[in-house]
Amino acid sequence: MSKFPSQLLALLAVSLFCLPAHADGANFDLTGPRLQIKVTRGSKELPIAQVPNLAPGDHLWVHVDFPASQSEHYLLIVCFLRGTTNPPPDKWFTHAEVWNKHITQEGLTLSVPDGAQQAVLFLAPSTGGDFSTLRNAVQGRPGAFIRAVQDLNAAAYDRIRYEKFVAAIEKIPSSDTKQLKERSDLLARSLNLKINQDCFLRGSGQQIVCLTAGENAVVMDDGHSSLVTQLTSGPATDLVANASATQALGSGYYSAYVGAIVDVVRIMGSIHSAKYQYIPALGLPENDALNLKLNNPPSFHNPKSVLVIGLPAVQSALLPPLRAVDPKQVLCLRKTDLVLPVEGAPLIFATTFAHHLTLEIDGDHPVSLPLVADALHGGFTVDLSAAKDLTSTKDVTGTVKGMWGFDAYTGPAFLLQLVPASQWKVDSADATRLVVGREDHIQLSSTGTACVDTIQAHTSDGTLIPATWKPGTTDKPNLLQVNMKLKDIQPGELALQVKQFGQDKPDTIKVSAYADPPTPQKLTLYAGDATATLSGKGLEQVATVEIAGTQYTPGDITSEGDSESLTLTPQSATTPPKDQPAPATPAVPAAKPAPPTSALKPGAQQTAHITLKDGRKLDFSFTVQPPRPHLTLIKKSVQPAASHGASIEFANPDDLPLNAKLTFIVKSDSARGFGRSEKLEVATSDNSLHTTLSLDDGSLVLEDRQTALATLDPAKAFGVSAFGDLRFRAITTGGIASDWQPLAHLVRVPELTDVHCPYQFDSRCTLAGANLYLVDSISNDPAFPSTNTLNIPSDFTSNTVQVPRPSGTILYLKLRDSPGSTDLVSLPVLPQ
To answer: Which residues contact 300 (CB under 8 A, 6 or more apart)?
Structure first.
């Protein structure tokens, strides 16, 4: 493909982006004259809106609808073109004086000559020699006019498709977001548009406005529309292809007006003369009329404006390549709003070139059902009034037939189901696959599934279960898949109610929903502990667990990788287990209380008796683990770091400065006391920072077998950005950990040196120090009134700040890491 001249590209760019001069003109929003055109082929006459192509020998009747007050005389010139390098002969030009009474009343009648490839109409202001001047221009550059007409027709088809989209979208309620999404997708498929999906992220009131904006609904080249306009090769084709590939025109697609923009550039830039300038007119067909849209107002001064109007190409019929969206889909002829989903030929939906469309159904008594192309619903709507005459019990085939202009047209075929299905069965492989607690599906079989209207699933108590279904295909027309969300129901019998078109009552199919038994993987019970932990899968089914005569109630379930953990808590013997069904017979009281699990010995083999919520029981063997360490925090003290600044008095005794050292004493509650390899782990509450204290590094010192002294340097252990709650726990040699216990609240502190105050008592003072951004707010009043409080932003970087005058030498602080506490600092107050 050859590249078009750089000058022409520059001109195209100007027409696209110079808003005052060209962009507005490219909209074709000026109303022009109206032409009435009818075409007769043989004995059949069609209005121009039903004619996709002309043929040699066709008779054209053309009439210009000028108002009675028309003052400027126009000449109507009809020209037939035969090739870019073959000028048309003089006899292929016909002209008529539109103001002539005979033409006004009767119109102009002429025939398409043999050898013609294109027809073009001109409306030119009447001047001396106007006809011969225009004829010479066409004969001198026939290729330019052929290309102009073809591009005008292409632009008109694009404009019609886009306007069809806009008109249909505006019929949808703006508040119905779901319908708008579904219908716009169907419109885009039918009319071969690319819409901006980001429009659906906007509010409901803005979605339609966004979708109908020109830049958000791009008309795509579907091939068939281009062929109907008889596009040829050569420089002009290169121009369109290269232009449409630019980012401005849609990255490979062309907008509803790109063809017209190219026409403006080419016609005005290369064909105009001192006497005439040519204005392209989009002809939008409506019944027997072409409604003309202009992109520039006509001029009646030299160069005068000549309107250029394209007619359909003179060529063999190019039948639309229509296809079924899903060739394997089976459709139901009893569905009252039946739509045949089709795609691949947007002119079917945008124009009336296809007419007298029917669905021809075979069988013992063939039936013809009228069709209407409906872009909003994504296919052909079917008039089923004659379908009642069909009596066949077998599936039949329906074929789309009709007329494309003057030519017979046969479209795609569809497999159709006539009667509601019967003999419903659950696929044997799916009989036990429904499992509660998740979304699952089963397959149903019958004599046919296309006529299914709704499927509802109910529990035995009538609770509705969310269900969706997929219809059968031509490969498996008797199967359908039913998906059900079984998360919030109990196992048991379910009823599927299948309602079909043409059926008064639904069919009921009984199915069962089951629960997968849980798969215990590990039960952890430390000797001396009251609670236990059960790990595995499917633990939501557990109702109770009995260990050594003690009943446990399940608590929260947490996930750990691909496994679950269930906390088990002992319950009172008189408290009924949570979610466990009442026993069929009264429980027999135990003769004596069962021994508590705290008395179980380490290493003892035990069996956990697990009762499920559906009454099933499982047994699981486990070994009692050694006791966990248990610690008590006896005492803690803080050693402040050496500092040049004043010391802050913390209101919260748990606040621990990051630059201080913490010494705390813990006592073991077990008889064996601390082991030599036992460690203390200290971590933040989110466990993002942690450190270990041990006898080996001296951070842990034994006072005796039961008592240990621990020393923590937070800044060294966690770094300068650490803050928040700290907790600790003991870890034995075997890796068994005690429960976490709170230790302190870590705060970063600024370094405050002194305050300089002026003699004026009502003036603010200057606080000096370092890391002042760690202060949230400062006041001279512990109540922190707004008038005497300074809030310091987190991005503060200075070493001084203006503060309220201290109360004596005292200021009150709220630190950024502990804003809920009011701390106190006493500072030297110096004159300023």
So the answer is: 72, 125
